[in-house]
Amino acid sequence: MIVEMRIYHCLPGRLPALHDRFIKSTLGFFEKHGIVQIGFWTTLAGPSNHALTYLLQWESLAERETRWNAFQADPEWIAKRAESEATQAIVERIENHFLTPTSYSALR
């Protein structure tokens, strides 16, 4: 198993728009493309409270490439994403990390 950690750093005041996009659009596209989410978090304390962190579960990097590329190329998703940013961009930058569990991890 591989876990992908994605951190979306939003422009000030745009985190609610990102939540709305995930709830109304993105999660449905994840389901459509077989993308498995582990969970989503906002930052309670830290350098910025304008971030959304989430984890995705993959069997391999090859699976991730296939499913993620299909999601990103989906014409309906492209339209929904553009619609959500029609008046103003939402995300300033994205970080992502690919994590593998240790032998002593509870999540393997």
Automatic annotation (TrEMBL):
NIPSNAP domain: residues covered: 3-105
Highest taxon, organism lineage: Bacteria
Pfam families assigned: NIPSNAP
InterPro entries per record: Dimeric_a/b-barrel, NIPSNAP
Protein name: NIPSNAP family containing protein
